[in-house]
Amino acid sequence: MKRKLQIILLLVAFTVPMFLQAFTYLSDQDFRRLSGSERREYLIQLDREMASFQSRRANANAEAERLEVSIAQQRELIAGVDAEIRVLLDALGITDEDFAYLRTRIQYYQDQLTNWERMSDDELWRNARTFTQLREDYNLTRQNRLARLPEFQRDFNDLNRRFVAIEDALDRSRRARGYWEEPYTVRRGDTWLSIAGNDPIREGIVRRANRLPARAHDHPSRHLPTLSEGLRIVIPHGLPTQWRVFRGESLWRIASYPEVYGTGTQWPRIYRANRDQIRDPNLIFPNQIFVIPRDDN
Question: Which CATH superfamily is domain 180-291 in?
Answer without folding.
Answer: LysM domain (3.10.350.10)
